[in-house]
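Q: Got a minute? One more chain.
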Amino acid sequence: MTHPTLVRREHDTLATALTLAIGGLPVLPLSADKRPFGNCPDCRDNRCGGRPNMKTPGPCQCPRPCHAWAAATTDPAVLSSGAWAASWRRARAVAYHPGAAGVTVVDLDDTDAIAWAHATLPATRTVATTRGEHWIYRGAMQSANGVRAGVDIKSSMSYARWLGPGTGTMAPLPPAVRALVDKKPSTVRPTTVTAPAPAGGGQCPHRSPAYLERGIAMAEQRITDADTAIHTTVYRTFLAVLAAHGRCGCLAETHIARLFTAAQAKGESPRHCTDAWANARTALGM
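A: Always. Here it is, folded:
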C-alpha cells in the first residue's frame, strides 16, 4: 500500500511541473539531495553508466534523452508518462533547464556573493534560495561553476531548482555576466572520431554508406528545423549521431563539418559546436 505522504508529494511536485511546463518552462524532477534522476527503468540509479549525479547520460539506448537537463521538457504527456512515474514518486523538488527557457541564472551562494552582485550587476528578477539568491536574466549562455567565490552560472546544459517566480523585472543578460565565463574563441576544428575498431573483424555494423548518409542528413535537418532551444537541439543531435556512428569508425571530418555548418547556420558559434561535440563524446565515454 502506498503511503499517503508519498502520494501527496508526487502529486504536488508533478502538479507544479505541469503548471510550469504549460507556461513554457522545460522541467524535470529532483531528489532530496538536489540530484536529477534517470527517468526510465534502464537508466534509473545510474545503471546506464551516466556520469556522477546524472548530469550527463551514459551510453543508454533511450529513444529520447531521459537524464537531467537533457530530459527537461514542456510536454505534459512525457512528464506524466509511466516512464517518469518512479522519478516523481521519489522527487522532492522541481528543476528546470534555464538555457532552453532562454534565461541565465546567476547562482549566488552566500552573503558575500550577493554583495558582489549588488555592486557589479544590474538589478533583475531575484529568487531567494536556502543560502543565497538566484539572479535571473533574459538570455542564454554557456554554464560554468565557480566563476568566482560563491558564484555559479546556470544556463545552457545545466539545471536550476525551481524556487518560485521571484520578485522584480527580468533584465537582459548583461556583458558583465558573460565576461565571467568568456574566453578567447576556440580555433580548434572538429576532428575525426577515433574509437576502437568494432568487433567482428572491423566490419561496420551499418554495412552500407547509405545508412550513415541518411543519418547525417536527418541530423542536419533536425538542426535546421529547430526554432527554439537551439543549444539543446544541437547537443542532442550530436549525442544521437555519436551514439549511432561514433564507435564503428564511420564518421569522417566531412560528416562532422556538415553538422557544425548546420549548427552555425542557426547562430551557434564554432566554439559552442566544438564544446557540444566534446561534451557528447564525453557523455558517451568516447
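A: The chain is about 40% helix and 15% strand.
Q: Perfect, thanks.
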